[in-house]
Amino acid sequence: xxxxxxxxxxxxxxxxxxxxxxxxxxxxxxxxxxxxxxxxxxxxxxxxxxxxxxxxxxxxxxxxxxxxxxxxxxxxxxxxxxxxxxxxxxxxxxxxxxxxxxxxxxxxxxxxxxxxxxxxxxxxxxxxxx
Length: 130
Fold this sequence. Notes:
The chain is of the alpha+beta class. The protein is built from three helices and seven strands; from the N terminus they run E-E-H-H-E-E-E-E-E-H. The protein has helices at 31-47, 52-64, 123-128, and strands at residues 2-5, 8-10, 65-75, 79-87, 93-98, 103-108, 115-121.
């Protein structure tokens, strides 16, 4: 097996596990398929939670979820990056996946497109922070 990202092992899919022992996402998937698989796993875990707020956040996220779509995200310092929008914008915020970082971000809607505001982590964590 080889390291391709911090905290992730890739190789034999049947035996691949991340540091926490969860099964890894099949490396043969496309980027949108990988993103969907990550979100599906996160939502399934949240819906099975005993915490009512976690379950409600997951249901609300499902209602605003969209198939991953490439977007240009603006970052401080006039930098931009191609990312993947995974939720419909509500006019104020949307959740995007940052492929170079390997996590999700909460972005504010602006006249120039989504703007990263520094809220990063799991999709539901970003979504639920508003």
